[in-house]
Amino acid sequence: MPNHTVKQGDTMISIAAENGYPSWEAIWMDPGNAALRQKGRDPQVLAEGDSIVLPEKKTRVVHLSTDKKHVFVIPTIKAVVRLALKDNDGRPCANKRYQLDVAGKLKTGSTDASGVVELPVDPKKAEGTLKVFLDDADPERTLTWNVKLGNLDPIEKLAGVKARLTNLGFLCGALDENLNDETKDAIRNFQIVHRLPVSGEADEKTRNQLLKIHDRR
After folding, report:
1. Kindly report the CA angle at 88 between 118 and 211, in degrees rounded to 5?
2. Which of these CATH numbers, 1.10.390, 3.10.350, 1.10.10, 3.40.50, describes 3-53?
3. pTM of the full structure
């Protein structure tokens, strides 16, 4: 069976969509991927370099009469993005109009009372721009984010820690594996806010709290 080496931005959903599988579970639950599952990895938060076994696709045989019209329904993979949006003061962007432009496709709507937006997106990896209108009477009052779907690294990587901190408003510089002073300050601030032992290190308690807050569903 062929293998797929994960690239930045890959998720099980995008891998399945790009390789013509009916669902991401058809790949993820294959025995060849048991070792990766045992790591406790989120199938939609893969690490660059992970090796994914692509199982043989199953062929379905059907018997049909030749004097009738038949309709076949082909299953398609669906992907949903869920974002909790806050302004620069940490307040939820509640009931605000938004525009999400991903891969040239514009989606519009309004956040809910908690500042959350949840909407279907193309299952293949893509980048885009999310704009939130803070005041309909003043179209210049907006918040804009660059969105990279599927680019979140696992929490065990420092880049994954830094991405989550940045998304939560604790800016820590480039999303890489470099534990610099800016990153340590961001970790300390996060630990202070959430009443964790203040060390400036991404220890187990800090990572678990990040997962609880950032990755909750």
Report:
1. 55
2. 3.10.350
3. 0.79
Predicted pLDDT of residue 173: 87
What is the mean pLDDT of the segment spanning 186-205? 96
Distance (Å, whole) CA 191 – CA 200: 8
Q: How far apart are CA 20 and CA 16, in angstroms?
A: 6
Q: How far apart are CA 171 and CA 16, in angstroms?
A: 33
Sequential DSSP letters for 152-175? PPPTTSHHHHHHHHHHTT---SSS
Closest CA to 12 of 3, 23, 103: 23
Pick the CATH number of 158-214 from 3.40.710, 2.40.30, 1.10.101, 1.10.3210: 1.10.101
- In the chain, CATH 2.60.40 covers 79-148
* pLDDT tens string 74-103: 778 888 888 888 888 888 999 999 999 987
φ/ψ (deg, to 5) at 189? -60, -40
